Amino acid sequence: MPKLMFARPPVDAVEERKIRKLAGARHAPADCIRRAQMIALSWDGLRVPAIAAALGCSPKTVRHRLVRFDADGLDGLGDRPGAGRRPRISQAQRSQLIALVASPPPGRLVRDGAGELSATDATAAAVWTLDALTTAARGRHRHRPLPGAPDPAGRGRALASPV
Question: What is the reported pTM?
Fold first, then answer.
């Protein structure tokens, strides 16, 4: 038989006011509102199955949230960090990529002081290619060529354009 479980009593009136205010909020994250409602209903004397029925969730979820609130207090209402997929690139690589995209391509025409158009680097291409992006990750990932580029497998045809 499962033991009776209730949320611990509020530490002070401020904590109780915050939980009850969050439980009745309309413009807050929905998961935090639902968790605060679980705590408030527990303080009102409802048992775990009644709270689960009132909020439309499982009793296991209610028990988990009550234990988490007992251990962490108000911080227990939020999600723990670390959930989700790990980033594919580091923050430093991301910063380099953003800086590269924000800068003009090396062969792009720019106006000089006299108003004439000239290329800053006449030998470079006027558009960015994936080669500039893959040099940092050489050997780790293979990239898909741009549409219209020759087939890297050497089959003698260009890749279809997405247009």
Answer: 0.53
